[in-house]
């Protein structure tokens, strides 16, 4: 059996953590455990009891933090995509941010992180699982909104073609990125993430540049 997840930032020996720090560490460990179960056995294998056991806690602790399996999966979907491309949130909206996001997203897919793989598996499952669909529609719309903002900002500053439709670009980019991620899950050797990220970034730069 895999070892239980541990917080990413263990305390310094002798240092006493606050109650909030302990709560944050416990929540992170539970989400790590849930991601591992999704990747290993699929969404249906995730139960509050199994998540608690994997993380080294009781089911009661999982219930205390999340309340239900759906709330746990919602939290996993949110945290696994937050900050997926390091540094992109610090850039102003526009073509440059869009290209950094596209290349960085594909590059991160190549790292095969457990949380990223879990997100893609949950996203695919959301097409037929009612308990997941609302959360993932919300996550996808937030992603598309950011992409639309980048295209609109590029049009405004003259770096993006005036006839580019932000809505169409957003749907196309999101579909491409998610599709590459699913291909990577099915056949990792078929996707050279670093090379592909640069190639796709170049494609969108040529397609959108004014």
Automatic annotation (TrEMBL):
Gene3D superfamilies: Tetracycline Repressor, domain 2. Residues 14-23 have a biased composition (Basic and acidic residues). Signal peptide: none annotated. SUPFAM superfamilies: Homeodomain-like, Tetracyclin repressor-like, C-terminal domain. Residues 1-23 are annotated as: Disordered. It comes from the Bacteria. This is TetR/AcrR family transcriptional regulator. It comes from Amycolatopsis minnesotensis. PROSITE patterns: HTH_TETR_2. The keyword Glycoprotein does not apply. InterPro entries: BetI_C (IPR039538), Homeodomain-like_sf (IPR009057), HTH-type_TetR-like_transc_reg (IPR050109), HTH_TetR (IPR001647), Tet_transcr_reg_TetR-rel_C_sf (IPR036271). Keywords: DNA-binding, Repressor, Transcription, Transcription regulation. Transmembrane segments: none annotated. Residues 1-13 have a biased composition (Pro residues). Residues 24-84 form the HTH tetR-type domain. Residues 47-66 bind DNA. The keyword DNA-binding applies.
């Amino acid at each position: 059996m895999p070892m239980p997840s541990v917080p990413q930032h263990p305390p310094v020996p002798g240092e006493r953590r606050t109650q909030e720090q302990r709560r944050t560490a416990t929540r992170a460990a539970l989400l790590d455990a849930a991601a591992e179960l999704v990747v290993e056995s699929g969404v249906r294998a995730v139960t509050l009891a199994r998540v608690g056991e994997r993380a080294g806690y009781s089911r009661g602790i999982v219930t205390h933090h999340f309340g239900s399996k759906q709330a746990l999966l919602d939290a996993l979907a949110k945290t696994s995509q937050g900050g997926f491309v390091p540094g992109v949130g610090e850039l102003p909206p526009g073509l440059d941010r869009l290209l950094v996001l596209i290349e960085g997203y594909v590059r991160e897919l190549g790292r095969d992180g457990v949380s990223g793989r879990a997100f893609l598996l949950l996203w695919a499952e959301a097409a037929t699982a009612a308990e997941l669909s609302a959360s993932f529609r919300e996550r996808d719309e937030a992603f598309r909104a950011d992409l639309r903002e980048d295209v609109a900002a590029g049009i405004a500053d003259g770096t993006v073609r005036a006839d580019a439709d932000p809505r169409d670009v957003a749907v196309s980019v999101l579909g491409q990125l998610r599709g590459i991620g699913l291909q990577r899950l099915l056949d990792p050797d078929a996707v050279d993430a670093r090379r592909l990220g640069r190639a796709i970034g170049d494609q969108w730069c040529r397609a959108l540049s004014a």
